[in-house]
Specification:
This protein has about 200 residues and is an all-alpha fold. It has one domain (about 5-10, about 45-195). Helix content is about 80%, strand content about 0%. The longest helix has about 30 residues, at about 165-195.
């Protein structure tokens, strides 16, 4: 695997451009001026998670927490599903978990950094990349992709203004369905792993 292939592989998983509606939806209830703080936190924490997992993932999972990757898939899937349901319920005017005040750092860590950016797919990609091509490819891929991600997040407000409130809102709500579907897929993949893994 070349450096370019490594970067493209991680870029496709993290998908900075396609996730713009998700970034906006996750931070829409933050106080003014706090959105960029959440984005900066997400980039830093997300990159750190991927690097740590790539270099120490197997040891951390197996020996420290005594969990498998399937456990992360199921937990991340449940979190995504609850996030989507929570946002949809809020739209209908019912009571929502979003009424609870959270800080920009909280949102930047969860759900932006994990599981949106540093989810099971990105973790597995970095771990496989390390085993196949070495640490240099992992560091290069994470650095380049998360630099692009920071730039996208830095200008997400101008992009939002160009799209307009109506278009952005419509995209955000449509994306909630896909977020829920991704969550269900992650849960089912984790469950399937339990039944198909060698005993």
């Amino acid at each position: 695997m070349t450096y370019l292939q490594a970067i493209i592989a991680l870029f496709a998983i993290v998908d900075p451009i396609g996730n713009i509606p998700i970034f906006l939806n996750a931070t829409e209830r933050l106080p003014a001026g706090q959105r960029q703080k959440a984005f900066n936190t997400a980039v830093g924490v997300g990159a750190a998670i991927l690097l740590i997992f790539a270099f120490a993932g197997k040891a951390i999972l197996a020996y420290v927490f005594r969990i498998e990757l399937a456990d992360i898939q199921i937990a991340g899937g449940i979190l995504l599903l609850l996030t989507a349901i929570n946002s949809l319920v809020f739209v209908t005017g019912r009571k929502s978990f979003s009424s609870v005040k959270v800080s920009a750092i909280d949102i930047g860590c969860v759900p932006l950094a994990c599981p949106y950016l540093a989810g099971p797919g990105a973790m597995v990609t970095c771990l496989s990349m390390l085993q196949q091509s070495g640490p240099g490819h992992v560091i290069a891929a994470v650095t380049v992709v998360f630099t692009i991600l920071w730039v996208v997040m830095r200008f997400v407000d101008p992009i939002h203004r160009v799209l307009g409130q109506l278009v952005s809102t419509a995209i955000n709500k449509i994306m909630l369905v896909f977020i829920a579907a991704i969550g269900v897929n992650m849960i089912m993949t984790g469950i399937q792993t339990y039944f198909t893994a060698p005993k």
